[in-house]
Amino acid sequence: MIAEHTEEQASLYVLGLLDAHGARAFEAAMAADPELAALTGSLETGAAAMAWMVPPRDPPPALRARIMDQIKRGDTAPPDKVVPFPSSTPWLPWAIAACFAVMAGWMYYDTYHLHLLLDSFTYRDRREQAELNHIQVQRLDLQNNLADTTIKLSTMAQQKAAAEAAVDALRNQVAALQTRDTLSQLKIATLASMLKNAPHATAVVAWDPTSQRGVLQTLHMPAASANQDYQLWIIDPSYKAPVSAGVFDPASRSSFQPLHPISKADKFAVSLEKKGGSVEPQGPIVLVGE
Amino acid sequence: MSEETATLETPEATLLQRVARGDSLAFDQLYIRWSPMLYGLACKILNDPKEAEDALQDGFVHVWHKASSYDPGRSSPTTWAYMIFRNKAIDRLRSLDRRGRGLERIALEEPEHTSRSAGPEEGAESSERRQVVKSALQSIPPDQREAISLAFFSGLTQTEIAERIGAPLGTVKARIRRGMLKLADVLKGKL
Lengths: 290, 191
Known about the structure:
The complex is a heterodimer.
Chain A: H1 4-14, H2 20-32, H3 34-52, H4 61-73, H5 92-185, E1 187-193, E2 202-208, E3 213-219, E4 228-235, E5 243-248, E6 254-256, E7 267-274, E8 285-289
Antiparallel strand pairs in A: 1-2, 1-8, 2-3, 3-6, 4-5, 4-7, 7-8
Chain B: H1 3-8, H2 11-20, H3 24-46, H4 49-66, H5 77-98, H6 124-138, H7 142-154, H8 158-165, H9 169-187
């Protein structure tokens, strides 16, 4: 879609109504825009309509020969004029006078064309100077644009850094929320002592059903004998027997992972088993809790 | 068949291609074909047969050297030639004005069809084109036609046209734009 102003410039350009600056700028725009070039071509067709309505007129026959002669000579200078020469000596004085007249005429003609050439060069100089000024203005514009663009790039870089920081903050928030969500799903069980010799023994189990992992922390548990181990069990109604979560050292906090997947951890229990543990509980239950 | 190909098939486009290759015979044929209409145009703009001859000579020398710059996708050969010769004549007119030898500006009337009967050199094709152009010119309002006509033939500046018409410069520009677009639209693919 070509703007109305551009259509107007195109119309004025076709009719030669733009000044040198305007015409040069328009030609540059046209060279970069095929749509504008096509519009200009169609406008030229419209302008030429005016010429179509002018009655044709036959030029002087000699003109054709002059032009053909000029292009065959390969120059663009004004065509030479044919100077008639007298055919007999009795007319020599007249011929000489005629020669002078012709020479005078030719000199006037030549001077006239020199004036035209001078005008043409002066016009060209002015136009080139104007074009140079125009180019300098464009250069300044480009420099200003470059400075603006540099500032914009700097601003954009700052905005990008700020955006990345915001994204990082959001990621941290998401991670915190995920952690909070995980914590909200944790099952915490306190196991009470069944031992008469250690009634204050206790344990706390933190169980994460999502990761199927847990942590066990015991307190006041008597040490097991050398040939025995404490073993943690998880009671899941989907299994007939308690599921082993492994043997542990009561002196330190232990992480555990059950032998089979747990769908619902109803209870946790600790038994005293033979060294290395058992597949199913065989020893006495020492701690239990829901 | 594409529009470009169709244009290239016209004899004038073919002749121009040959001229671009330095074929003086083709150039001579173009001269025979074009010189009456272009000389008529130069006479109308310059209002002086001698100046018109010089403008015609300048224009044909330009054609000889610049035939390769003709773009068949942009306009017809005749339109291309009209614009070259029109610009040559306007340049000459302005140059004469600057030298204080300005010719009396022609009294611009509404362009009208020539009363000259079509001669043998003016074929039926040209006559038909003139009818198409005449219809196109009649399709635009007179004020737009007047502004375009002044701009095309007189060599006046925008401001001078506005003064001549007695209308604000903006109005003149708008008339030229609307009229030119309308002409281009009506004549699309017809010349």
